[in-house]
Design goal:
Length: 615
Amino acid sequence: MFNPNNDRLDYGQLLAPPAEYELDFAVGTTYSLDLDALVGASLSLSLSEETDSVLMNNPVCLLEALRDTGDKVALFCDSGQIRYPNHINHLYILLEKMVFPVKVKKQRGMAAYPSFHPKMWLIRYKNRKKESRYRIIVLSRNLTFDRSWDMTCSMDGQPDEAITDKNEPLCDFLRYLASQVPSNDNGRKKARGIRSMIRELDHVIFRLEDKDLKWFYDYSFIPNGIPGSNGKKYQIDQTPLFRNTFHEIVIISPFLSGDIIRSFNDRNKNSLIKNDRYMLITRGTSLNKLSPDDISNFADNIYAVKEKVSDGETAISEGAESVQRQDIHAKVYMIRKHTETDLYLGSLNASHNAVYGNVEFMLCLRTYRSNLNMDKMKDALFGKDPESQENPFEKIRLSEKREPEEEDKAHLMETVIRKISRSDPHAVISEEDNGTCTAEVSFGMTDTNGYQISVQPLLSAQSAPLANHICFSGLTLLQISEFYVITVSDGETAVSRVLMISTDGLPQEREKAVVSSIVRDQNSFYRYIFFLLGEENVLSFLETEDLSGKGYYSFGKQNHSIPALYERMLRTAAAAPEKFSGIEYLMKTISEDGVIPDEFRKLYDTFRKAVKKRG
């Protein structure tokens, strides 16, 4: 389960519905967010496609995936950590109802802003009998296209007559998420979806049935930094991970703090345990923050990804010119005591901010020493022959004297963006006489700290220096968004992030404008309809599209394909009448005259009445 060469998981497959099921509602969390990765996740949740599917290049498929998931997905991320996209897409407007930035409050005594850092999905699927099936996915991976080495675990479960309290920490985590949504219509809708999950989770038993989970006999969910229903705060430093002694410990963490590593290093100092064993896998740069005393017991068993591996992976994002490092990003803790082994995985780094400031989410899996111990974990990670070229890790040693690492310039600029995001910016949209709109954006913070700071609507080329009050005029419907780009520069280095700014007066016609920009004529309209009505949506799309993106069917003045459409609608009405909701959406949303053919309106009205009559 730990071999980085063989035990690969596909993010899209993790999200895709099981056979005979479809997405009902999903809650996801991430620290940093790539908007295109969220579009890819929507493809997986709706169409069972991979997150980097070729369909990412087809606007009809993307529109349908985002239409289908818009009201069914609530994705929470850290405020100020939405990545600036390589290519801007008007479809991002449809992501606004899914994305909820979280601003974790700064705590007394902490210099840095705490982060909303969990990475997990809780997904409810339903079949045609309205039976629920749940999937919990706990990850160390953000919803981005980062190529680093991560770990994940997923479990499925179904409601049962029995009552369980094992999901209470998960329910408390969901309650915290529900408290972070705004009080508008979309926020209330998502909060209702989250609460409906909470009500059902008392009867959901997650099964350890996957081939890699069969070795484990128990599990527990461990949130950190959120209030519990019992009035107490979840604090991971009060759990066995930070309290119990051990015979073996393996820590995989890209980022480290001296006090946290020292707490593991010195744990057994006053115990009767002898011959204890320690192993650490991290990034070589993270060791610069530690003293030899912090890590003395680990010193002979520290590993990092080989440079030729970490420097040899090109960036996956289209258009990226730089080389993107493939380094360790997983967060895993294996602790064995006597015959019992606990495996913790999730979002928690072995750092001070992670333990004492951030909101995090971890999963603990329990097994026996015979199934999992340090030697077995080493064999899985490094291979039977650690000297083999296939082993991506190499042993590193601590030097006695090291220069302290300078604080990264980009990190300082990110801190400025975090301050701006926490100043409660607000926007108001008003219509102009010529049919365009004006966005007036207010910021509660204008201290630039010596940096050059600019603000730009994500879907517009207009830009302005940060100020208390900024006005962007002449915006079309396709340029109005709650997403704004904040760029901080010192003249040499620049960091850009996307902020989601609460906005009043958003025109309701924006979604219609997005649909009309894609479904522009009768040919594209019919391609969308054939896509919706296919027994398998993607296969249906391939049937009606050629390599140039033009449909095989030329409807224009010809209507020779109406019989084929009639046949498909007949089959759909009998076998999957719920698909007519997609057609209904399209009929109501297209605003341009002449796009919907008259012959189709007549055909659709006939089927709509028949489907409605059948209930």
